[in-house]
Amino acid sequence: MKTWWTLFKREFASFFVSPVAYVVLAIFLIITGILFYSNLLWYYQNSFGMFQDPYMIRSMNLTDDLIRPLFANISVILMFMIPALTMRLFAEEKRSGTIELLLSYPVRDSEVILGKFSATLTFFVVILLLTLVFPVFLYAVSEPETGPMITAYLGCFLMGASFIAVGTFASSTTENQIIAALLAFGLNLTFWIVGWISPPGTGTMSTVLQYLSIIEHYDPLTQGILNSKDIIYFLSVTVLFLFLTNRVLLSKKWRG
Amino acid sequence: MTAGNTRNQNRTTGGILTGTSTLIVIAILVFIQLIAENHNHRFDLTKNKRHSLSDQTLKILENLDDTVQAFSFYRESDPDYETMRDLLIQYSEAGPKFKYVFVDPDSDILTARRYGVTSYSTTVLTCGSRERKVMIPSEKEITNAVLKLTGGDEKKTICFLNLHGELDLESIEARGLNNLKLTLENLNYSVQSLNLLQTKAIPPECSILSVAGPQNDLDPIELDAIRNFLDQGGEGLFLLDPKTVPGLVGLLSDYGLKAGDDLIIDPNGYQNMLQPIVESYPVHEITENFSFGTLFQIARSVNPVDPPPPATTIDVIANTHEDSWAHRNLSESDEIRMEFDPETDTKGPIPIAAVSIKMSDGSGPETRIAVFGDADFVNNNLSQSVGNTALILNTIHWLADEKDLIAIPPKEPISQPMQLSAGQLASAFWIPVVIIPLIILGFGGSRIYHRRKHG
Q1: Interchain pair B22, A64: CB under 8 A
Q2: Buried-exposed string B351-390: b where 16+ CB fall within 10 A, e elsewhere
Q3: Which of B268, B272, B418, B429 to mutate: most A Cβ within 10 Å?
Q4: Helix (H, G, I), strand (E, B) or coil at B189
Q5: Which residues of B, range 350-389, sit inside 8 Å of A by Cβ?
Q6: Min Cα separation B250/chain A (Å)
Q7: CA-to-CA distance for A2 and A114, rounded, in angstroms?
Q8: pLDDT given for residue B128 in this prediction
Q9: Residue B317 and residue A47: Cα distance in Å, rounded?
Q10: Which of residues 246-275 of B touch A (CB under 8 A)?
Q11: Are the CB atoms for B385 and B367 separated by under 8 Å?
Q12: For residue B100, what is the nearest residue in chain A, using CA coordinates?
């Protein structure tokens, strides 16, 4: 535990040594801010139309028409952004040769992996905390539904954790950070679009491909629906890729 | 043994162990997914639980004796695909005997032909040899289709009286009734026009007689036919515009409902004071869980007769706003005064719809009657308002004694239109897009600068 804590602090502090962390935070907020503003503008203009003719225009709902599209957009941005955060985790240490030194210490591989994973996850939580400016604004001007807001953030957190685990794995396989980022992005994208290639109907292949799709499990959370199977899916993806990272590190020992 | 051989052996062993352990972990995770999929717990955290099925539907699904299979002919690009999919998932999770399958109508033409599907976004529900089509992805439509599939074969007929200037069943114009007709047919009612002067009596297949907005009074022969029909347990739906059909109004008084010689004026009316908005519904089976506004256009009051006729129960089901009033002093040449006259007018709330149940001889068939003080509220134009359609359908279900069909009010997202000031709109842009990023960059820049400066 103490080792994990030491590794966590070292890894988390490393985010803020270079300007990268601040630039990532600022860019993420600018992009999501623009998306939020454009969604808000659309919502406001349609609401205005509704005031003109309240009985003939369909209802406008903050969860369905503003929060859900916003979180759908945020998830796409995360697919690109998280590989940029995770690409250096192991690849940099491999390139500089410090990985051998690190693994020669009396620490377990799993502690190293969890230290790096949890530090990146904590940094990701900081990013998410910044986006709380959007719900704060909505609560100030309207009455958004709290339940769907919480599930949307939970979905974002779980999806982020899965992407970070995928990125950690990708980074452990190479010493080239660009390749690590591309591999992580490719894997994330595969999980994203796998449902698109599922054949119509409810055959086994279709069911499996639909189930593997991240959107299948993320979308209900943005609507305020909490399914136990969705939580378990995200946790399973995270555990699987952290385990695979562990196997990759272990393989260095028996490969010599 | 050489060092090279040892290394090779280590690699082989390591490879086998890694491969095996990876397969075991994947197998465990797949097993966990299977359990999670089959024992899913679903929580709907929206305020009005709009992603959950009503208790009524859950009860029906739990009690299904036969398997109901839904074939949903949708493309993923269809606008209602997600809504229908969300609903079908809920149905299948709630009832093990409800199954569904999505069929791509473009690639599986044979299945589409087999079920007579000619348009996208059609769902065919089957139970044994029976089939029903659902065109609208709503809980009400699907549950009603399930009920019709698993229930009896009886199809109730609603006969709409015509030739007195009533709203036209076939017309797709704003004042027509075609939307209502199609909705009723979709709910398994048979709808037909009735020329009472020709038939002299109401045909035996008519379960419900509907008189929707006659402008000319009925012939005494027709009034007698209607009285006979009602006295023999027929059900009647009467939508009566102001200043019309005094003969029919007199007949209905014998059943406890008196359409007033007045005109309802609502200062908070929809587009003008002659379009009262109704938001108050006294407790009744028809308006249970009813949370919609309904919109009327040039309406009269409908009052319970006092004292009520023997063996008759009367209930008002809709009242106008308390700021409205019933303008009584009507004449052909009179220009309507849009101010309340305490001497002649009646202060709101004004009953605009009422129902009565009359028992014949205390033990015979009961007669159910519903009277509305307006016909236009169900026309093609105003029936687009969700509340109007729901109110008339609930009333018809009540008349037809289709209690199961009543208790499923449509669940819509909570309407939250947003009004923003120019300042609020500007802050929604400047704070997240400019100010906070600048603070972050400034803070980060200064920290890095200090660190480099001070080593």
Answers
A1: no
A2: bbbbbbbbeeeeeeeebbbbbbbbbbbbbbbbbebbbbbb
A3: B418
A4: coil
A5: 384-385, 387
A6: 34
A7: 12
A8: 84
A9: 31
A10: 270
A11: no
A12: A202
CB of A14 within 8 Å of a chain B CB? The answer is no
Read off the DSSP letter of residue B335. Answer: P
Pick from B41, B293, B415: CB nearest A60: B415
Mean pLDDT value of segment A36-50: 85
Which tokens is B159 given?
């006969």
Q: Among A96-105, A219-228, B425-434, name the one with the lowest average pLDDT.
A: A96-105
List domains and CATH numbers for chain B: 55-150 (3.40.30.10), 157-406 (3.40.50)
Rounded to an integer, what distance in angstroms lies between the CA atom of residue B375 and that of residue B37?
51
- When mean pLDDT is compared across A217-226, B126-135, B336-345, the lowest value belongs to B336-345
> Using CB atoms, which residue from B11, B45, B387 is nearest to A147?
B45
Give the three-state DSSP class for A182: helix
Q: Count Cα atoms within 13 angstroms, Cβ side, for B191.
A: 21
Task: Say what the ipTM of the complex is.
Answer: 0.87
Q: Determine contact, residues B122/B73, Cβ cutoff 8 Å.
A: yes
- Is A85 in a helix, a strand, or coil? helix
Q: Is residue B419 over pLDDT 70?
A: yes
| Distance to chain A for B28, nearest Cα, Å | 10
Distance between CA atoms of residues B117 and B102, nearest Å:
13
Count CB pairs under 8 A between chains A and B. 193
Instruction: Identify from A60, A133, A225 which residue to disrupt to test chain B contact, counting B C-beta atoms within 10 A and taking the largest count.
Output: A225
What are the residue ranges of helices labelled H in B162-319? 178-186, 196-199, 220-231, 246-253
pLDDT digits (tens, 9 = 90+) for B124-180: 999 888 888 888 888 878 888 888 788 665 678 999 999 999 999 999 888 899 989
Question: What percent of chain B clears pLDDT 90, i.e. is strictly above it?
Answer: 41
Locate the domains of chain A by residue range.
2-255
Q: Which tens digits make up the pLDDT trace of A239-255?
A: 999 999 999 988 877 66
Q: For B71, which DSSP code? A: E
Q: Where does the pLDDT of residue A205 fall: very low under 50, low under 70, confident under 90, or very high at 90 and above?
A: confident
Cβ <8 Å between A26 and B7: no
From B213, B263, B205, select the one nearest B241 (Cα to Cα).
B213
Please report the residues numbered 409 through 438 in chain B whose beta carbons come closer than 8 angstroms to any beta carbon of chain A. Answer: 412-420, 424-425, 427-429, 431-433, 436-438
